[in-house]
Design a protein that fits this description.
This protein is of the alpha/beta class. It has helices spanning 2-25, 28-31, 45-57, 70-78, 91-99, 136-143, 157-168, 172-175, 185-193, 204-208, 240-248, 252-260; strands at residues 35-41, 62-68, 85-87, 109-113, 116-121, 148-151, 179-182, 199-203, 213-218, 228-233, 264-265. The chain is 43% helix and 21% strand. α3 (45-57) runs antiparallel to α12 and α4 (70-78) packs parallel to α5 (91-99).
Length: 266
């Protein structure tokens, strides 16, 4: 009986020793890769998601994305949202965060370029639009009483570029009252894809990933400022994994993905 009691008391002690030895031989910090939280412009959703998956599969870190308009993400970072990396669809909002000392010095660089295009529902009546100076009147006639979808030109980069392009071609004043202002470029694309508007203004890369819309006009590159996507680490968040992610975005593998989606790589 005494031997039974002794062995019964010994079992928990042996289990405790086994647990301690396991933890020392397999520490959690070594087993679990670091998570990189990436705040990226909505227009990069498909490409960055694919690249993030590659980053994880290579064992470089875990990838956690958040996609929205560049302005929304910048404001969230300003309010100390837990972002490690910020990828903006234009320099304006990166500059804004840099002025707030919220970008890690020495980590910013220009990553991508894009184009602005006019789209229509794939089954719609509009098949081509002449994107030329003086296009305001013909564009207004095409719209009639309908609206044109685009990112809100007050803060969404695609909308800002779009307004500048339309102004340079003499069209903005004719169609400004007919703009369906969307929270981001994906929302504008969705309005056209659902045939809620006969025309939309989006990035070329967004048009490329939808089989429900077609490109009916391409804006000249000199009709608006150069479209540039800067990327950087958030201040205080330049961890080894975050730096590794920034480097991976320059890799041949990442470049191939971006180019497949229609981006130009800087």
């Amino acid at each position: 009986m005494n031997n039974y009691r002794a062995s019964h008391r010994l079992i928990p002690l042996l289990l405790l020793i086994a647990i301690v030895l396991t933890r020392f031989s397999h520490p959690a910090s070594a087993a679990d890769p670091e998570t990189v939280t990436v705040f990226a412009a909505a227009s990069t959703t498909n490409a960055v998601t694919e690249i993030g998956k590659m980053f994880t599969e290579k064992g470089l870190g875990r990838f956690r994305p958040s996609f929205a308009s560049s302005s929304t993400l910048a404001k969230q970072i300003e309010q100390e949202a837990p972002a490690d990396i910020y990828l903006s669809a234009n320099p304006k909002w990166m500059d804004y965060l840099e002025e707030q000392k919220m970008i890690e010095p020495g980590t910013r660089f220009d990553l991508l370029g894009n184009r602005i295009v006019l789209i229509a529902p794939v089954n719609g009546d509009i098949v081509s639009v002449d994107v030329v100076p003086g296009m305001g009147e013909p564009l207004a006639e095409l719209l009639m009483e309908n609206r044109i979808a685009m990112g809100d030109p007050d803060h969404v980069p695609a909308g800002i570029y779009g307004k500048q392009a339309l102004q340079s071609l003499g069209a903005w004043d004719r169609i400004a009252s007919r703009v369906a202002r969307s929270k981001d470029v994906h929302a504008a694309l969705a309005l056209v894809a659902r045939e809620e508007t006969p025309l939309g203004l989006v990035y070329a890369t967004d048009a490329n990933v939808s089989d429900k819309v077609r490109v009916v006009g391409v804006f000249p590159e000199d009709s608006h400022p150069k479209i540039t996507y800067p990327i950087a680490a958030v201040a205080g968040k330049a961890s080894p994994a975050a730096k590794s992610f920034l480097e991976f975005m320059k890799s041949p593998e990442a470049r191939a993905v971006f180019e497949r989606y229609g981006f130009s790589v800087r």
